[in-house]
Amino acid sequence: MATEDAPVALAARDDDDEGLFSRDINGQLVRLDSPTESDYGKNVTLQIDGKPITVPLAEPLKDAQGNVVLDIDGRTTPRYTTIYDAALKLAGDDGKIAIPVLCHQPHMTPVAVCRMCVVQIYGQKRGKRAPERKLLPACQHQVKAGMEVFTMNGPGEDGERVRRAVGVMTELLTAEHLKPAPLPAPAADLAPFNELQQLSDACGLKGSRFKLDVLAVAPHPGQSLDASSSVFLVDHSACILCDRCSRACDEVQENHVIGRTGKGKSAGIGFDLNDPMGDSSCVQCGECMVSCPTSAITFKPVGKVKLPQGARNVEIIPAEELMRDSLFAGVPPKFLFWQEGLVVRRRVKPGDFLCHQGEPGNTAFVIKSGSFNVIAGKEKAKPGDKKRAEPVKAPEPWKVTAADVGVGEMTCLSGTPRSAEVVALEDGEVWEVRRNVLDRIMRSPTQRDRFEKIYRKRAIGLVLRSAELFKDLPADEYKKCVEFLQSRLTFVRVNPGQTIFEQGDWADAFYLVRLGHVRVGISQFGKEATVIYRSAGSVIGEIGLLAVSPDDAMKPAEEVDRFLAEALSAAGDNLSSAVPAGQRSATCTAMDHLELARVGRNDFLEMMLQFPIVRRRLVEVSLTRLRGDVDTAVVGIGGALMREYVKQGLYQGQSLLVLDLDKCTRCDECTKACVQEHGTESHGLPITRLLRDGLRFGGDHLIATSCRSCKDAYCMIGCPVDAIHRGKHQQIIIEDHCIGCGLCASNCPYGNIWMLPNLNDQMESANPDNPTETQKIARPKAATCDQCDAEGEREKPLPRCVNACPHDAAHRMTGDQLLAKV
């Protein structure tokens, strides 16, 4: 094993063990150790085509979205920096990198199968400068101090050797796989972005010497055109086996549908058990198509986005214009052509509103010109309060311009309602961007850094404003809290089912729930006795950090607060010794996609010392929770009912269709009214959006199968064409450009979305009984309850299912309302 004192080779002489071994300066094999977080601070300097570049020895692992992968403790996973990483940094903002790739993408695991990124490396062997015997892949080879790298743009014989190797490999690939996109794909639009053609042009090739009839081999049956999908086309003969599609399917989307099949000449990609794409479990997310560097996977021009009826001063921005904008520089052109219509231009005049507080946040606004006022935190009048018909609180607005990039990105990314209203101060132009386009923009490191800084700055203010701990603080005190936590808060994203901390763990952090729900389980005598849930605005982890024990539960809050204040004041700089770390009093788990604001223990104790009002509130919250007074409506019902409430996901519901079985006569008027209300407009045939069936809760309450308008709408996650979004009343709306992939239906945990044939959109398909004939097949389209106000024309939703019930048995209510009723 290599040690810290052992000499390290400047370049690896790793003939057959590139990934596992290197050689020291004496030529002896040494095994490469895994990188550690300490390697982030170790810089190495190398040369690429004579230009020096200094990079860290290791970098933190990032996910497909470009986010640094963190565990719940905020720790990163180190990975060695590669030559390709160094070349990217040397290229700078223009992105003109001297190392070509076909199989590699920065957000994918390098596999080095195309060998287009090969470079000539010089290092040290026995104290002398020596070249590597063979060319090595830059996407996979780690950097070492003193390394000299020559790319295909390099001077002299070294650069020429690389150019010859890349040129021959490119010729071999173009001989069989360089083809235009098959119809009906937009071949002319996609041709300039075929990466194999671009590489051929870069190598100065005017065709291929290997494209000879005498060398031609009959194509394998599996290499024909696969047009079975209603959205995509798969031309197996254009596939270069780069595996970008399979890694996109596995690593980015985690669908695990695409893999290698066959051997030798018959090798290719396959879907499931080598099924046609349309017959496989593919959800048609498009990640494989966007990742494909050739014309092997392209798209059919279906599902065109339409502008809303009556929309004025709004127009669709063509893909060609988006590609000329620096904001979209890192977005694949294939994606922009496929998603054309999801970025629109809005021209505004003074007084025009971009959005209103409380509206669904389905888009972000990129400011191209003009200036706007942002007003956040308005308090609205309560229903029936005539004296407070107007907002009672109007915070000072702040001004945003094109220099601020845009607004609305927080709600667009999180799917939450708008937290502010934005009004134009002058004539201007705004580009309105849908969620999946914004996700693509965020994959660019440069753009992601810009948006992350904006997100962090705005999210800190929002999380403190909405947290129960900081509500109604005096203005000066609140401002000081924001300034104190500005650099101390970190945002942690937690996946559903992931444990945040377990009962009995030693407390090391305090959390504010920014988005989502937390399941709090309290065990006694080895069994879970109590289940509680916390929603956005709540705090968790305070009991362990304050070291408040059950013995303190009956003490007055003043006594506990006074003890903490005296202990912290007397501790000086060593606050951690003043209040010993306590143990967690419950196990907290993410119930859905969760975003937490995390404060470390030392910063938490410093906050307790500097802000007495906040400390007193935390003491009161902790003691109340220990006494069991909080959530008495929940805990007092009994553990079994609460567990059922959580298990059925009723806490998520903003519009549950609850049927009182004591009154219901099973007349089915609710279902009939649903069919009559919607008619045949959406699918060309009458369909229902509800089923008078489902699970019971609390005895005689039936939760019918109908959209619940969940707070955390799983159905909206990953829609490839962004055809599903929130409506005016937080209801789920499915637009006409739905491609029928079924992802929303499979994502819905409650079976409230149906995939039904859309007779308004039919495609020609081969007749399986007679291959010489074609037949028309209706494309599938999703359907779900829209509370009978898809266009948002009413001030309040008016679901016909409720109004049609002759016995007052059907009601729409939130999960909390149902729980209180039971």
Q: What's the gist of this structure?
A:
By secondary structure, the protein is of the alpha+beta class. 25% of the residues lie in helices and 24% in strands.
Can you describe what's shown?
The protein is an alpha+beta fold and 822 residues long. Strand 38 and strand 39 form a beta hairpin. It is globular, with a radius of gyration of 30 Å. The chain contains 23 helices and 40 strands. Strands 3, 4, 7, 8, 9 and 10 form a 6-stranded mixed β-sheet that branches. The protein has a 5-stranded antiparallel β-sheet with strand order 16-17-24-19-22. It has a 4-stranded antiparallel β-sheet with strand order 18-23-20-21, with no helix packed on it. Helix 2 crosses helix 4.
Features:
single chain, 822 residues, alpha+beta, 6-stranded mixed sheet, 5-stranded antiparallel sheet, 23 helices, 40 strands, 25% helix
Structural class: alpha+beta
Fraction in beta strands: 15-25%
Shape: globular
Number of strands: 40
Helix content: 10-25%
Gyration radius over CA? 30 Å
Overall residue-averaged pLDDT value = 81
Uncertain regions: pLDDT < 50 for 5+ in a row? 1-21, 214-221, 380-394, 629-637
> How far from one another are the termini?
65 Å
The number of helical elements comes to: 23
Major sheet summary line: 6 strands, mixed
Please render the helix and strand layout as text.
Blueprint: E1 21-23, E2 29-31, E3 43-48, E4 51-56, E5 58-60, E6 78-80, H1 83-91, E7 118-125, E8 128-131, E9 136-137, E10 148-150, H2 156-177, H3 187-190, H4 195-202, E11 225-226, E12 232-235, H5 244-252, E13 258-261, E14 268-271, H6 287-291, E15 297-299, E16 314-316, H7 319-323, H8 333-338, E17 343-348, E18 353-355, E19 363-369, E20 371-376, E21 398-401, E22 406-407, H9 409-414, E23 420-424, E24 428-434, H10 435-441, H11 445-466, H12 475-485, E25 490-494, E26 499-501, E27 509-515, E28 518-524, E29 527-534, E30 539-540, H13 542-546, H14 557-570, H15 575-578, E31 587-590, E32 594-600, H16 601-610, H17 612-627, H18 632-635, H19 639-647, E33 656-660, H20 669-678, E34 691-697, E35 701-705, E36 724-726, E37 732-734, H21 743-747, E38 754-767, E39 770-783, H22 800-803, E40 810-813, H23 815-821
Parallel strand pairs: 3-10
Antiparallel strand pairs: 1-2, 3-4, 5-6, 7-8, 7-9, 7-10, 11-12, 12-15, 13-14, 16-17, 17-24, 18-23, 19-22, 19-24, 20-21, 20-23, 25-32, 26-31, 27-30, 27-32, 28-29, 28-31, 33-35, 33-40, 34-35, 36-37, 38-39
Helix pairs in contact: 2-4, 14-16, 14-17
